[in-house]
C-alpha cells in the first residue's frame, strides 16, 4: 500500500514522511525538496492547483493501491486584514483550502476502493482565531468545517490534525507577519506565544509527524479531529 504526502519538503510534511518508512511513499512539493531520498520513493515537484501535478502523482503511484493520503501543504497568511490584498487573500484560500478539496476529489475513487484514510493538516487556528492572522484562520477553519460536513458514507476514514504553534519556517514567517501587524518585535511575540502554551514551548515537527501516523493508523470509521497544541487550545 502507498502513502501520498503533499508538502513533503515542509517541516511537518517531512516529519510525516519519516513516520512512514515502513510504507511506500510518494511525495509532492512545489519545488524538488532538499530532503533525503529515503523519505519517498519518488517526489513530484509542482503546484497542486495544476492538473498536471495531480496527474504526475497518479503516474508515480503506478499500479500500487493508494491507502493513505496526507495533505500537509499550505502557506502562511498572517497580517492585518487591512494590509492583505485581495490577490493575497485569494492565493491563501486557494492553496490552503481549495487545493486540498481538489486533491481529495482527484484521488477520492482510489481511496474509496482501498477503504483508505485521508489526513488533512489544519491548525489550532481553525479552532480558535488568532489576532493578526485572519485570512489564515479562515482558510483552516474552512477545512475543518468541510471535514465536519463530509459525507460519512464515502467509506474513507477522515482525520484532521490541528497542530498548535510548531517550530517550522512557515510559523516563523507567520509570527513575523503577526508581530508587524501588532507593532511589536518578533522576539516579543515569540515570548508571548511560548508563555501561552501550558507546556512552555512550541511544538516540534516530529511530534506532529507522530500524530499524523497515529491518526492514519486509527481504524475508527468516524471523523477524528486532534488538536496537538501543548494544551494551548482544546477541541
From TrEMBL:
KW Chloroplast (keyword) present: no
SUPFAM superfamilies recorded: NAD(P)-binding Rossmann-fold domains
Keywords: Oxidoreductase
Keyword Oxidoreductase on entry: yes
Record-linked Pfam families: adh_short (PF00106)
Parts forming coiled coils: none
InterPro entries noted in UniProt: NAD(P)-bd_dom_sf, SDR_DHRS6-like, SDR_fam
Similarity comment: Belongs to the short-chain dehydrogenases/reductases (SDR) family.
Protein name: NAD(P)-dependent dehydrogenase (Short-subunit alcohol dehydrogenase family)
Native species: Pseudarthrobacter enclensis
Amino acid at each position: 500500500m502507498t502513502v501520498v504526502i503533499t508538502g513533503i519538503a515542509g517541516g511537518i510534511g517531512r516529519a510525516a514522511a519519516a513516520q512512514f518508512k515502513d510504507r511506500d511513499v510518494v511525495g509532492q512539493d512545489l519545488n524538488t525538496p532538499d530532503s533525503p531520498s529515503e523519505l519517498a520513493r519518488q517526489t513530484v515537484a509542482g503546484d497542486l492547483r495544476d492538473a498536471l501535478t495531480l496527474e504526475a502523482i497518479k503516474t508515480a503511484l503506478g499500479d500500487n493501491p493508494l491507502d493513505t493520503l496526507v495533505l500537509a501543504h499550505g502557506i502562511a497568511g498572517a497580517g492585518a486584514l487591512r494590509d492583505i490584498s485581495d490577490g493575497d487573500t485569494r492565493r491563501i484560500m486557494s492553496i490552503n483550502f481549495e487545493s486540498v478539496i481538489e486533491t481529495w476529489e482527484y484521488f477520492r475513487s482510489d481511496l474509496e476502493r482501498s477503504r483508505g484514510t485521508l489526513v488533512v493538516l489544519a491548525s489550532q487556528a481553525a479552532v480558535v482565531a488568532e489576532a493578526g492572522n485572519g485570512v489564515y484562520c479562515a482558510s483552516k477553519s474552512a477545512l475543518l468545517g468541510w471535514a465536519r460536513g463530509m459525507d460519512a458514507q464515502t467509506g474513507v476514514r477522515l482525520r484532521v490534525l490541528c497542530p498548535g504553534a510548531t517550530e517550522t519556517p512557515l510559523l516563523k514567517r507567520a509570527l513575523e507577519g503577526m508581530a508587524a501587524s501588532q507593532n511589536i518585535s518578533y522576539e516579543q511575540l515569540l515570548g508571548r506565544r511560548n508563555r501561552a502554551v501550558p507546556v512552555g514551548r512550541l511544538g516540534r515537527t516530529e511530534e506532529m509527524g507522530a500524530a499524523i501516523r497515529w491518526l492514519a493508523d486509527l481504524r475508527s470509521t468516524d471523523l477524528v479531529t486532534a488538536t496537538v497544541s501543548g494544551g494551548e487550545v482544546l477541541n
